Amino acid sequence: MTNKLSELIRAELPVVIAIRRDLHAHPELAYQEKRTSRVVCDELTRLGVEFVPGMAGGTGVLAHIPATGPGGKGAPVRGAVALRADMDALPIEEATGAAYTSKHPGVMHACGHDGHTANLLGVARVLSKLDHRPNPVTLIFQPAEEGGAGGKRMCEDGAMNGSRLGPKVDRVFGLHGWPQYELGDVGSRPGPLLAATDNFHFEIVGEQSHAAYPQLSRDPVVAASQVVVALQTVCSRNAAPTECLVVTVATIHGGLAHNVIPRSVMLSGTMRTLTPEMRKMGRERVCAIATGVAAAMGCEARIRWEEGYPVTHNDPLLTQRFFRVARETVGAARVREVPTPTMGGEDFSYYGQHAPACFFILGVRPPGRQTYPSLHQPEYDFNDDALATGIELMCALAVDERV
């Protein structure tokens, strides 16, 4: 099977690379992936793969490749293996200098979702040509991973429960290109891999006045500054040094002119945690500090809290399966266990609420290079050379029939 997969991948790779570069040149933001969705649907139509378009607000696509026996008879004997890719881009001005650079100013695939989508289309091209597929395979092309919770909406629209297409999913895999890993390396870990992501927005409201008469104001600039400093104690004084907790204030907006103390200042930021207990404590302390410090400065903190993605938690048994298949597919020397979770977030976490899930990372850093542009940087570009490994490993996971 490994030789057959490799042979098919070599034949399909030029087309998949062309698709990836086309997607890179035409990035679309969350829930705006209309062209990307059409590309996916057109490719699936050419392959004769059944699909349901228009999911998750209009741009999500759910596809299904049935199991087959040696004689070509349909033989779905178990739930489906689901494979997921995200499709959206980011509001970043591209600086890669690539020949296929973004044609949309201020929008680019700075997180490599063009590679993820092309990779899954490559999987579809290969699996559709296999004579023997022991498992039914569901392909999930989802919108809006970058803050829009497109994965949650795909699940709500029936991507996992078998109500729209194919049987119910009994295990699901996803991948992400990883610039910290060298090309050809893959990795994962059981348990938490990525953090829960919550966002906060504070309006610190005071009293406006002339800047020359601060005694007539209740200065929200000073109060907001004190809030930012005090929030640093949530991690250093409310969580043990061995606990994982991040609290970052990322934006400050306020002021009208150099000689006016404004009425209000806006703060926004993010909190990342790995356990429900830490998530609850962190929210309570962040809100209490903002409220209390603002009040001490004669101001009011108006709080809007956005509960974000859950922890991306890998099922231990399914992760064991991933490691076994990965070692057989790419070689044990190229398979790594991620030592600690990363505090980034992923809406792949929602799929794990419906079936055992395993998310893994795929190295994209060229050999011989010590560094590579990181995710969400304007210089980042998914490495086409990583597609062969990503396609082969996803296909191997899809056809693995051992218990």
Please tell me about this protein's structure:
- The chain has about 400 residues and is α/β, with parallel strands linked by helices.
- It has helices at about 1-25, 35-45, 115-125, 150-155, 220-240, 275-295, 315-330, 385-400, and strands spanning about 50-55, 60-65, 80-85, 135-140, 170-180, 185-190, 190-195, 195-205, 210, 245-255, 260, 265-275, 300-305, 310-315, 335, 355-365.
- An eight-stranded mixed beta sheet has the order 1-2-4-3-5-16-6-15, sandwiched between helices.
- Strand 1 and strand 2 (about 60-65) form a beta hairpin.
- Helix 1 (about 1-25) runs antiparallel to helix 3, helix 1 (about 1-25) crosses helix 8 (about 385-400) and helix 3 packs across helix 8.
- The chain starts with a helix and ends with a helix.
- The model is unreliable at about 70-75 (pLDDT under 50).
Distance between the termini: 18 Å
Structural class: alpha/beta
What is the C-alpha radius of gyration, as a whole number of Å? 24 Å
Helix and strand run = HHEEEHEHEEEEEHEEEHEEHEEH
Low-confidence segments, ≥5 residues, pLDDT <50?
A: 71-76
- What integer is the average pLDDT? 96
Number of DSSP strands? 16
Q: How many alpha or pi helices?
A: 8
Q: Strand content of the residues, in percent?
A: 25-35%
